[in-house]
Every structure is written in C-alpha cells, then in structure tokens.
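Fold it.
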Amino acid sequence: MLPRLERITIYPIKSLDGVDVDEAQVLANGALEHDRRFALVDSEGRFVNGKRTPAVHRIRATYDLAEETVHLHDTSRSTSAGFSLTNDASRLSRWLSAALEIACVVAENASSGFPDERDAPGPTVISTATLAAVASWFPGLTLEEVRRRFRANLEIDGVEPFWEDRLVGAENALVPFQIGAVRWLGAKACQRCVVPTRSADGGEPTPGFQKTFAGRREQTLPASSPRERFDHFYRLAVNTQLASGQSPARLRLGDTVEIG
C-alpha cells in the first residue's frame, strides 16, 4: 500500500488556528490557496506572530473559506467577533490589536501568501506517525496537541515515523516526489521556532521542550536521513517547493504519495 495524503490543513491567517480541508488548489508559487493569505504586521512591517508574543495562542479562529469569513474568540477576555476576511480589514485589525496588545494591521497576499521560507514556499510535509512519536516523548501531550504546535500543511499516513526525512537530500539536493497529480521537490528539514515549545491553547511553555525534543530527535534519526543536513536537531517536517513545469492542479485527501 502506497503512502497517502491523510490531512490537509490551511492557515488562512498566519500564526492563528488552521482549518482542515478535503482538497486544496496549488498556487503558481507552490503555496496552497488560502494558506497564510493574511498576516498581521506592525507599523514597521514586521510580522506579529507567535514568535513575538505568546498572546497569539489565546486567540481561537474558525473559518468559512467559501464565505471568506472568520470568527475569533479571545480566551483571556471571553470576547468574540465575526469578520469578513476581504471586507472587514480595518475592524479585524482593531480587534486583533486590542486582543494582542500590539498595534497591527491585516495584510493580504492572495497570489502567494506569506510563507516562512521564501525559497521553499510549498506546503510543509510530515507523517502522522512522526507526530505520534513526538507526542510520546512528552507526558500529557496528545497527537492533536503536537499537530497544532508544529502546524504542518500536509500529513502523510501509511508510513513509519520520520518518513518525511527521505524528502531531504544530501548536499542540498532537492528530492522529487509526487502527491496525486502534483510534482514537488523536498528542500530541507524545517527549522523550528519557539512556538512548538508552548501550549497551542494558552501559550504556556512546556519546561525543557526544545532540549528534550532535540535530544530525542537525534537519537531517533533514521539511518536513511542525511545527518549532514541537520546542523541541529530542532527540526521537524520538510519544506517543499513546486517542481519546475508543474501545471495547476489540486491536492485531495487520499492522494497517493511516491518518492522519485
């Protein structure tokens, strides 16, 4: 049985909650439609995100992508409001500025989104087994909690833990692979930030998370993984880019995955 695409998660507003979808259009730059389409930026153009303030973790977001709306709830203040993502930018910016206590505005880039890795703007890929393995390293952490902390776009089932490391080539080589009708290139193991060290709900830190994670990641690194590509072991999931010449296509749950 071939590996298959088990989950597609889109993050319409960068740093806020994601939404699971059954299929996703691949944009010309390799990003998924609606993913990180909006971002919060301050007056100097810097992102306002979970790296900058743990207050982001206290905001719950639910979306209706067909209607292009979002409903937000500030768990610390018990306040909620609904917004049109395309028509309520000013009101949405004011609400988030108050909730985060940082003046910010909602910026939009519908054509390519706001990817973390500009040289590899495709979806991040991880396996369900990897997420389950990481959850087992930390008492009390569930698969769903680890999933929300690491915020990958595409989850692959039917494979062993850290299978996605196969998409990282030696000496900066790009590794071709295919999901359904879409050809991709695996670029590098994704470098993580402070966000996964905190609770996805309230932002409380898990003591020793990064040190424990890096130690266990090194211990469990598969023999097939290119160790020389890991300058440190606080890395999880794989950054990707669209293969040259790939025509517009859609990803769908159940699509098979092949390397090579």
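The first helix runs from residue 89 to 100.
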